[in-house]
Each structure stands twice: as C-alpha cells, then as structure tokens.
Fold each of these.
Amino acid sequence: MRILNAEFIKSSTKSADSVPQDFAEVAFLGRSNVGKSSLINTFTSKKALAKSSSTPGKTRLINFFDVTAQEGEEKLKFRLVDLPGFGYAKVSKSERELWEENLTKFLYERLAIKIFLLLRDARHPKMEIDDEVKWFLEEFERKDFVIQEVFTKIDKLTKNELGALKRNNPTAIFVSSSSKVGLDTLLERVHSALFTEAR
Ligand SMILES: Nc1nc2c(ncn2[C@@H]2O[C@H](COP(=O)(O)OP(=O)(O)OP(=O)(O)O)[C@@H](O)[C@H]2O)c(=O)[nH]1
Ligand SMILES: [Mg+2]
C-alpha cells in the first residue's frame, strides 16, 4: 500500500464531539513521548502533519487525519487517530482522571477503529502500564479489531539488543521514525487489518 495523501480533519476532546465514523480507523495508542505523532508523520510521509515534541504531553486532544492510499489499481480511504499519551505526570489528578474517562469512553464507542497500534518504546519493552493497556483492549466485548504491538525508536538500540527484542516479541513490528525502518511492514499490516481481516 502506498499513501497518496493525508490531511488533518479535526481535533476533539471526547467521543461526543468526534467526526462521524464513516471510515475504518487506525488508532495510535501508547505512553506519552513514545512516538505516536512522529509515527503518524512517518506513516504518511508528511513531516509536520501531527505535532510531535521532545516534551511529553504534547498531544492533548484526539486528532483525526484522513488518508488516501493506493493498493494495486484500487484507491483506498481510511482515517488515522492520534491520541493523547497516557502516563503523563505533569497534569493535575482531576485533569488526568477526566482524560482517562474521556479516552476510555472514546475507545469503547469508537467502533470504526479496526486496528490499535500499541506503541512501546524499544528501550523500555517491559513496562507494566503498556501491558495493562493491552489487557484492557483484549477485554473489549467486540472482537472485530486487531491489536498490533509496535516497538518505536529502534534506532536507539544496538544490533544485539534489537535481535533480542525481536526474538522475545515475534509478532511485533519494529520501527524507527528517524530512519523510516519498518515502515513498509507497518503499511502492509494496516492495509490487511483494515481491508481484509477485521470485518
Ligand atoms: N530517536 C528517535 N526519536 C524518536 C522517534 N520517534 C519519535 N522520536 C522522538 O520522541 C519524542 C516524542 O515524539 P512524539 O511523536 O511527540 O511522541 P507522542 O507519543 O506523540 O507524545 P505525546 O503527544 O506526548 O503523547 C520527540 O522528540 C521525537 O522526535 C524515533 O523513531 N527515533
Ligand atoms: Mg503526540
């Protein structure tokens, strides 16, 4: 699959003010600073489509991006959803609780999401909070979606470290937004989840 175009559609704070669920969606989920917004830019080959920052807590809203792609002769349309990162400490407890509530409700109600990309930092592959999010998704009553673990920032690993990570996580995808490694694998995974598997 080749991405032809991608554009920002809307930001929203919760389920109720989101765009209609008229396309299949890809959700980018993960801890704050793991590289969600950067991966959206890499995925679409658009440098500043999603706002990324070295300061955690950059994405505070749910952002929707519409994508046009091509597979063979076929033109495809789908949507990317950039989500606020979890585990961001520098907000008040009440603000964090409100977010978590909004985000949880959003994830439950957003039936258009057909693949959750669960991003994990390749340098910290065993964080419990990442496992908890995975379990949370696995417990959803509906099963018409795919959960795909994606290890980010693999450019920060040595060859040996990357080899070990791959052996320990045989079904994961390994990407680097700085070197574009893993992009083709990710594109194919998303294509198959949206247009062939999760129906
Ligand atoms: N070395 C390296 N740095 C990366 C990579 N991807 C993202 N980064 C850096 O990690 C930082 C966070 O990236 P973001 O894309 O803003 O992370 P996010 O998950 O969207 O963060 P929040 O919006 O706070 O949830 C930025 O400084 C990026 O430049 C990567 O593949 N390799
Ligand atoms: Mg972000």
Amino acid sequence: MKDSAPRVICIGAGPAGLTAARQLSRAGASVIVLERDPVYVGGISRTEHYKGFRFDVGGHRFFSKSREIEGLWEEILGDQLIRRERKSRILYRGKLFDYPLRAFDALKKLGLPESTLCMLSYLKARLFPIRDPQTFEEWVTNQFGHRLYSIFFKTYTEKVWGMRCQEISADWAAQRIKGLSLGTAVWKATIPGWLRKAGSTPKTLIEFFKYPRLGPGQMWEAASEQIQESGGEVLLGMNVEGLARDPETGTWTVTAEDTDGKSHQYSADHVISSAAIIDLAECLQPAPPEAVLTAARALRYRDFLTVALIVRDVDCFDDNWIYIHDSSVRVGRIQNFKSWSPHMVPDPELNCLGLEYFCFKGDGLWTSEDEDLIRLADEELIHLGLVTPGHVVDGKVIRQAGAYPVYDENYEERVALFHTWLKKNMPGLHLVGRNGMHKYNNQDHAMMTALLTAENILAGEELWDVWKVNQDADYHEVGEDRTLAFSERKVPAAFEKNES
Ligand SMILES: Cc1cc2nc3c(=O)[nH]c(=O)nc-3n(C[C@H](O)[C@H](O)[C@H](O)COP(=O)(O)OP(=O)(O)OC[C@H]3O[C@@H](n4cnc5c(N)ncnc54)[C@H](O)[C@@H]3O)c2cc1C
C-alpha cells in the first residue's frame, strides 16, 4: 500500500462497485460509492420489493468456479446463503422439456418422426460441421444439428437479443453453452454421476446453486452495510455526470447530481467505474477524441422488463424458471420466485411469477403503461396454459435499462479503442464489471474484476490485468507455473496475472 491511504470513488453500487469498495475500505482506503438508484443497491443483481413480495431482475444464481468468490459470498452473508436445487424447463408446443436438454426426454416428447429428423440433422452436423463458425446459428448448429437449434434455441435467443441468430456472434454461444453438445447431453442423461469425470460438467448443467434467503439484493445490502462499518460511504440517488482529471496533480473531480437536481463534487486519487461505457464516455472532461467517443456511443445494449404477477395458483409449476419457446407470445422467460426461496413470498396462499420481456428502451413494450403490461402478462400466462383465468391478484413492473451488453460484429474493436485510449490518457480511472467493461459477465466475474482492481490500487501498481478475467474458469487453459502462482493466493487459474 502507498504511504497515504488512497481516496477512491466507485461509480455504481452493483456487485462490482460494492466489491471494490468493500475490499478497499477494509484495507483502510477512503471510499465513497455513488449510486444513481435512489432506493436499491445491487444494480442488476438487486432485489426489489412490493407489499412484502421480493423479486429479482431475472433470477440470480450464485454459482462460481472461483473458490475465492464463493468464499466472499459466504463471508458477506454467512448462514443467510441457502442451497437450492436448480429446476428449469423449456415450454415448447404445450410441453415442458427438461433444460439443460436431456436427450431422451427431448426425443420422447418430440415424438418419433420429429426425433428421427433431429437425429439425422445432428449426424449431418457432426459429419459435415460448419468450418470456423462465426454466428450463433452456425455454432449451435454444429453442437446440436440445425433442427434442434431451430426448436430449442432460435426463438428464445431472438427474443432475448432482438436480433436474428445469424447476426449474433459465435462468441456468445461459445461462452454461454460451451462444452454442451448433444453428445454431452446424452452422456449426462445416461451415465450415473459417479461415473462421470469430476469437474467435467459444463456450467449450464449445474444442478445446485446458492441463493440468498431474501434474494440477491440481500447480499448487496449486507455488503453496503459492511462498507459503512469500515468507514466507507454508500450514497444513493447520486447520478455521476462529470469526471475531470487534473493533469498536474492527477486528482479526479467527480460530479454527481442528487435526486433534487443538486450538484455535488468529490475529489479522489482513483475512480472505479461500473457505469456503462456509453455513459462514462459522456462524463469525461475534456471529452475524448471524436473517434473514441463515436466507438463508445456505438456500443449497444439490450433492455429488459419483468412483470411480477402475484397469483393465487401456487402450484402452477415448481421450476425456478421456464423458457418460453413460443412465438405466439412476447414473454421470453418466466421466473417462479417462490421456488428460488420461499422467503420471497410473504403469504403461503400466494405466489409471485416474474414474466420477462426483452426489449429496447423506447420500443413499444418499454413505453407501455404498467397496467397494460400487467394485463398482457396475465393474458399470456393464461394463453400458455400455466394458470387459469382470474388468478392474478396484483402486479408490479420493473424496468432494467442496459441489462445485456450486446456482442455485435464490431463491439470488440470499439471496446478496445475506448479502453486503450483511457489507459493511456486517464490514469487512475479503472473500468470494472459487466457494462463497465462491456462483458456479458455474471456477478462472480464482475466481482473478480473489482477485487483485482482494488489490489492494483492498494499496491500502487498494475499487478493484475483485469481484462484477462475471462468468462469461465474452466474455459481457459493455463500452464502449470501460473496455476501454482494463483493457488498460492487462492485466485483461480483463469484469473490471469498480468505478464508485463
Ligand atoms: C436477466 C438477468 C439475469 C441474470 N442472472 C444472473 C445469475 O443467475 N447469476 C449471476 O451471477 N449473474 C446474473 N446476471 C448478471 C448480473 O446481474 C451482473 O453480472 C451483475 O449485476 C454485474 O454487476 P456490475 O456491478 O458490474 O453491474 P450492475 O449490476 O449493472 O451495477 C452497476 C451499477 O452502477 C450504477 N450506475 C450506472 N451508471 C451510473 C452513474 N452514471 N452514476 C451512478 N451510478 C451509476 C447502476 O445504477 C448500477 O446500480 C443476470 C443478469 C440479467 C440481466
């Protein structure tokens, strides 16, 4: 650590901002977290509440291949972290298929003629795979065959991204469903667990996960309290609008507007930003060169809304969530919050279902009145046969802008241009987290980028290159020596150390 404790501003009280702030404040740094949400901490991983019901922005599993992150969750929340069994299925043509797909279940429910066509299509994909797959469609077709891709991946994926599968980069599929093919699914479906090689299960097949008793927001509410106990501050309702660095002293001035429109200024040696790159770029004073600004402004995000319906049919289904592969409805996925944790619902006679709609800010869904969205969700639940008419007691709409950073054709170059310029011209400004780095990350990776950034700041040098924190520990191959270095400091092998 440097001679004097660093002064650090964290933009955003999501998992990344709070993890960095917690680590730094416990090490004696002077930390202020500025969060624009006036009520909640947790960012996309917050838990909203309404009349005693609690619901996530999409269900949030706590699962990581990093022991360090798993340990951190335990440390923050202790016995409030419960173990849950995962159950999720796909609703297709009125039938519920196991998800992750189990070959025999899928083929049985599809019927003999369709199953035969699927198997032939799979064989064709294995014998004549598409060389160097570039798109989501090509990548999944190689893994499952074109027919199964059309049935189980196309509709849902296109709803999520609002793009055709031919336009989505193969990277996305490779990160999210890597290691999973029809062959793996058959293996998983037929071979008893004790015969399978330990650690060979890909991430999407994980059957158990941890979950805070009162939803993910409970984790981040606890982290926020712990930061304040260590002397840090977490200020809500503070929208960061300006970031200026004095070139002489290297001191940062951060300007934030509170909910009454009043402007506040803070000084810091370091700024850690988990704000979306597109927003951060507009805050910088002086503004970056035009090419850098244009690259940041061209980054795209998919937005999202959940209609949480309080329903009387408590037994409609017991999955954590169901994927809706049906193009006759607009809902993409349905969460059952009681299955995540019974403590999310205050009344045993009632349940709370979250109907998830993927949209773009400003489109017809996003701008619909809440009461219209609640009516739409009610009608779609009935149409899908999941509940009977007259079951909805109440509803609440949650909108989440920038839920998904979009991996389109040029996103990598755009992010690299912004990041390279920032690194050279804005020392002391660190990018972390999901939208902060434009990475389609889960909480664990967002947290790891924050932890390593905190360590860099405390050391006063760049010990770690946080851009090397990859999406999943198992997906990254490392040599013997590095593995050893990481195990010494209990950082998993995938979180690579800067080689420079
Ligand atoms: C539908 C859905 C389901 C998911 N499921 C899972 C799951 O099962 N498991 C899992 O681990 N992860 C899951 N995730 C991912 C998880 O939500 C994110 O990885 C995590 O929240 C990222 O943390 P973050 O701190 O980087 O960003 P965020 O959560 O986005 O937090 C950033 C914070 O910064 C604030 N902010 C932004 N700009 C400013 C500004 N200018 N001034 C002040 N504050 C600002 C925002 O308000 C926000 O609170 C899911 C995500 C989605 C969308």
